[in-house]
Amino acid sequence: FFPTTMAGGDDGDGDGEPVLTQEQVLVLQVVERAGNTGVWLRDIKSATSLQQQTLNKALRVLETQKMVKTVKSVQQKTRKLYMAYDLQPTREISGGPWYTNEQEFDFGYVDELKNVILQYVRATQIADLGEIEESVKMMKVSKVPLEPRDIRTLVDALVCDGKIERCEKQPGDGGSKGLGATRRRKDDLDAYKIAKDIPDDDANALTTVPCGCCPNRHRCRPDGVVNPTNCQYFQKWLNQPDPLADMEDI
């Protein structure tokens, strides 16, 4: 990832090229091998067998030379990962487009994107994922490029919110001409429209619980960043009026 380094003193060689000690080169090699998943300080120490003071000094030099940087994981916010300076962390570490540079979930940004999608589906009456993705790109509301899986996550969240629902789209149904027409994907088989309220006599725990369609269900666990305790969807579902409460006296 970097120009060839030379073992030597801590000072430059006069030509602007960094000259690293053997310890610093060793640490750099361990960090480079970790790629964009990064490596914990404990693992660097184990791989290099360096004393803590020597290791800390080596890392400081590498950070100053912009060969190594520290990043925080959304899963382990109290621990730092070391990574090659020019690499970007994986989504598992950065949290993807939904997290700020401080690894905080950006609720405002997500809500804005969800509202854009909701307004588009309302305007077109029915839309598939390809059309929704193209509409988000054309409106240029996203801070960063979004992948198809990001759009699906947003759409799944709107389904969980009860704002839209899946449906079958027939040729000529809804949508904007030109959006998604040039490329059809398997995902385009899923179409969406504004949701209708579930009749009270059909409502029950199985039809309303959000877990089944939650976009983060695969990351949800009791001790994880995503968990039932702080889940907004689950809390909203628990706090809503019981549709069967009026039937208790019948």
Q: What does this protein look like?
A:
By secondary structure, the chain is of the alpha+beta class. 37% of the residues lie in helices and 10% in strands. The protein has nine helices and eight strands. The protein has helices spanning 22-34, 41-48, 52-64, 91-94, 107-124, 129-139, 148-160, 205-208, 232-239, and strands at residues 6-7, 19-20, 39-40, 68-72, 80-84, 127-128, 164-167, 191-194. The strands form three sheets. It has a three-stranded antiparallel sheet. Strand 4 (68-72) and strand 5 (80-84) form a beta hairpin. Helix 5 crosses helix 7 (148-160) and helix 6 (129-139) packs across helix 7 (148-160). The longest helix is centred in the middle third of the chain and has 18 residues, at 107-124. The chain starts with 5 loop residues before the first strand and ends in an 11-residue tail after the last helix.
Topology (elements, then pairings):
Layout: E1 6-7, E2 19-20, H1 22-34, E3 39-40, H2 41-48, H3 52-64, E4 68-72, E5 80-84, H4 91-94, H5 107-124, E6 127-128, H6 129-139, H7 148-160, E7 164-167, E8 191-194, H8 205-208, H9 232-239
Parallel strand pairs: 1-2
Antiparallel strand pairs: 3-5, 4-5, 6-8, 7-8
Helix pairs in contact: 1-3, 5-7, 6-7
